[in-house]
Design goal:
Layout: H1 13-19, H2 24-29, H3 45-51, H4 56-66
Amino acid sequence: MKNHLKITKEMKISEVIKKYPETAFVFLEYGLGCVGCPMAAPETIEEAANLHQVDLDKFLEDLNKKAVKK
């Protein structure tokens, strides 16, 4: 993966949502309603992408486009 990414595949969903709340819309656009599910919070981005058959690289790219915090 690219080193400049703020969000990586190893990050937990809960960590991403807490740090970059604006990314919740990306999760929903990809059909991942897990942003509000306590059971999914400990999942990594990679695990969620695999579970929902989402293209991980494209998902990460879109999440990082929305992650406006530094």
